[in-house]
Amino acid sequence: MISIELGHLEGMLGCLLGALLHISPDIGRLVYLAPRAALGRIAIIEHVLDVTLKDGSETRAAIEKNLRKAKAILGKRHDFIHGRWGLSDLSEQAEVFWHSVPFEPEKPPRPVPLSELTGLIDSVRSTAEDITAITEELYQAWPPYSARPQRRKRQASATRGSARPRPSGRPKPPRPPRSSRA
Q: Domain ranges in the chain?
């Protein structure tokens, strides 16, 4: 269940990247999910955020808050996935224990109650919902933070009419056939 919720959160972070870059959510997810490291993917959003939204804006503060939450969640996911799970004993009242791999004395084996895992799922869901809402707002206000480029008016050529005519005595050299062009 945790993997499914984390997959959804990562998908929503990809959509957020798409909104920040003014590209479709599908392309945003493709770009976001290309690096294999989860924290590296969040770093991509942080770097894009630095150049797309102004410091101090409400939207930027909300995104930064949710990125911090996502980092904490993904850090915990990393610990859980790569840690060692086991039972305190083989009885029916046994507790589920977890410890880091390799074993670190500052992180001794500890019981993991079901409420901690459901709390993690709730945190993942609420963060994904917040990111979804922010992303929808960004897409609705598209382009919210960059001016649409102005088309430049075509200017008359300064050389129009002033070009010297080709001397009529020498014909233009013929072009080689297409097959011999590199």
A: 2-82+113-140
